[in-house]
Amino acid sequence: MSMLEVAGLGHAYGGVDAVSDVSFVVEPGELVCIVGPSGCGKSTLLRCIAGLLPPTRGTVSLHGDRVVGVPSDLAVVFQDYSRSLLPWRTVAGNVEFPLRDRGLSTVERRSRVEEALSWVGLSEAAGKHPFELSGGMQQRVSIARALAYRPALMLMDEPFASVDAQTRADLEDLVLTVRASAGMTVLLVTHDIDESVYLADRVLVLSQSPATVVETLKVDLSSPRDQITTRGTDTFVRLRTEIARQIRR
Amino acid sequence: MPFVRKLAGLVGFLLLWEAAGRLGLVDARVLPPPSEVLVRFGLLFTDRGFVAGAVSTVLSWAIALLCATVLGVGVGLLLGSVPALRLITMPVIEFLRPLPSVALIPLAIALLGTQAQTKIVLGVFAATWPILLNTSYALGEVDPRLLETVRCFRVSRWRRLVGVTLPSIGPFVLTGVRISASIALIAIVGTEFLAGGSIGLGQYAFVQGTSGGRMDVVLAATVFAGLFGCLVNAGFLAVQRRWVSWGSVASSSGEVAA
Amino acid sequence: MRWWVRVAVLLGALVVWQLVSVLAANPYFPPPLRILEAAARLWPSAHFTADVLPSLARVFGGWAAASVVGVAFGVALGRSRALADYFEFVFTFLRTLPPPLLVPVFMLVFGISTEMEVVTIAFGTVWPVLLNAVDGARSVDPVLADTARVFRLSRARWIFGVVLPAAGPKIFAGLRVSLSIALILMVISEVVGATSGIGYQLGTAQGASDLPGMWAWIALISLLGYLLNRGLLAVEHRALAWSRP
């Protein structure tokens, strides 16, 4: 069974379509990127999938169950890390926070926090508060928080749009390694064509607003990927050109 | 829709109050129902004692607020721009500010009598602090990059003050004045309340309440003061939105930097 | 500011005050040493248990009650648009009523009693806390609210773990304003409607034309206001340590 199935999804704000008719599936263990021009309705689409926003038309199903409201085994990493972390809790406190309502024992919670923090390389910073960290580190905290939650599906909404180029490359590699070790299914939304090709197993290209899927591209790049060599391969260049052309259309 | 709800809330509140009085849940002599208070409110304006008191209170309030604004902004600018002065005055201010103006009432009455100058002086004392502190605080908050930018264009000192500094601190100062407006009213009414033989809303309510037991009159006078306060506050908010809309209009209560 | 600078400045101010008042020799402005003499006579005496403690209890009682009610109500109103709409007109109006005017009403209801003073203080201090709590609860970042929904936080943890801390800075600002209003109302209600308390003693000293005594009580009120404010700031500093980068 597919992990995620989106069928005929549409959303309109006050009669104006933001997302018109989107259908796709995500298989378990896949990393799928949705790429589209700025303001095309990507975030609206993601909010509908997360159950934060009821779609106007169509359905979203998470391993076969229709999504109504936020499902219990889904996590979201938002673009604004500084606004999605609790400033009054430490790094470990932030990661642990959503685990409290899942009925886990203290020991289990602690071990999950430690594991998630070591995956993102922040074990040392467990006792710090968000304001003491750089932007890239803060975003790693929110990734750790999502990992510790152990969702079946992790949604990422432009997760690296607010960090500098070097941090961005580091975080991209972090997502690839963490996803390999945690065996996570990831759906990532971005406006950056290169990023989508670099990260994804499959890229869905969205049109201008109202968004529809205009193309699905399989990314047949070998793993593990490397920031320098992967980006220089012919396949990479061919794919990014293809996507750029689709978006321009 | 929100307006309907707001109105429904008010009407519901009045109905509940009315019902409580009519059904004898509360003693109508202690808390007269709103219908009686409203009638009394209308009749207040034919009562010479009330009209004289209201005029005296409102005038004293206006004078006190004006003095406090001039004093608060002037001293605030001085303290905000001369660090040495701030250093030697701040400890004293820290002790004076928490001193409630009403504690000075006995002294002020002994010194100045029960005339209007007493309540004006105490109103000024109470109302100056928020303006003064907001002004000096705001000076520290002017974006240094903005000042540097302007200096790069070799703008004169005077125009830097008038064109950059004052507009930057405007919203803060106005918020201070708005807080002070209600504090001045409390201080003035409180002074009248405690100063026997004075003229004003506070003394009027005191006499009607304690010697006459006329709670309907007391409440009607309170309603008048409340409406006056609402109007003033709404006026300040309108001014803030109209003329200093670039600054974030501080919270509805405005106690942000208080 | 260093503490010794503070102390030095205050001592300097006292010396200047002493010199000026001795030179002026105005009976209304006794020199600080005379006030200190009166304070030494009045503060530690029977007045401490009979007047100072009751006054403090009234301030704390009224202020604490107002804080609890204000925060609870404020958070509820801040998170529910509909609820806030229903109460908007009523609260806008109630909060502008000058509390001293209501003292006769409270006096008739509760008589000359501690209840009257506590209710007066609570009524006057609840508004700044309430309105700031509403503001604070409303200001929870939408991204944070989405995050809480995504992680399916329980209602209690949403309120106590997210909304209350987020509203914390605003609530403390409201508490500070309330504290100064509490002192004002303590004095007013005690001068007219009490048989004990600092305000009552202030009125008594006035009646007896005991000017150094009056000044001593005024100084005590100022000192209490200063100390309470400092204490609150210390609590705030600890509670909101996370908000200072």
Q: In percent, how helical is the residue content of chain C?
A: over 70%
Largest sheet of chain C: none
Q: Count of helical segments of chain A?
A: 9
CATH superfamily of chain C: MetI-like
Proportion of beta-strand residues of chain A:
15-25%
The CATH architecture of the largest domain in chain A would be 3-Layer(aba) Sandwich
Backbone shape of chain C: globular
Strands of chain A, total number = 10
- Cα radius of gyration of chain A in angstroms: 18 Å
| SSE topology string of chain A | EEEHEEEHHHHEHEHEEHH
Question: What's the number of domains of chain C?
Answer: 1
Biggest interface, CB < 8 A: B-C, 70 and 71 residues
CATH architecture of chain C: Orthogonal Bundle
Broad shape of chain A: globular
Poorly predicted regions of chain A = none
The chain-level structural class of chain C is mainly alpha
CATH class value of chain C: Mainly Alpha
Secondary structure: helix percent of chain A: 25-40%
Quick synopsis:
The complex is a heterotrimer of chains A (249), B (258) and C (245). Chain B has 258 residues and is mostly helical.
Question: Notable features of this structure?
Answer:
heterotrimer, A: 249 residues, alpha/beta, Rossmann fold, 2 domains, 10-stranded mixed β-sheet, C: mainly alpha, MetI-like fold, 10 helices, globular
Characterization of the model:
The complex is a heterotrimer of chains A (249), B (258) and C (245). By secondary structure, chain A is an alpha/beta fold. Chain A folds into 2 domains: 28-54 and 152-249, Rossmann fold (3-Layer(aba) Sandwich), CATH 3.40.50; 81-150, no CATH class. Chain A contains 9 helices and 10 strands. Helix content of chain B is 78%, strand content 0%. Chain B has 10 helices and no strands. Chain B has helices at 2-22, 34-44, 48-81, 83-96, 105-112, 116-141, 144-152, 157-194, 201-211, 215-243. In chain B, helix 3 runs antiparallel to helix 4 (83-96), helix 5 (105-112) packs across helix 6 (116-141) and helix 9 (201-211) packs antiparallel against helix 10 (215-243). Chain C has one domain (33-243): MetI-like fold, CATH 1.10.3720.10. Chain C has 10 helices and no strands. In chain C, helix 2 (32-42) crosses helix 10, helix 3 packs parallel to helix 6 and helix 3 runs antiparallel to helix 8 (155-193). The chains are: A alpha/beta (249), B mainly alpha (258), C mainly alpha (245). Chains in contact: A-C, B-C.
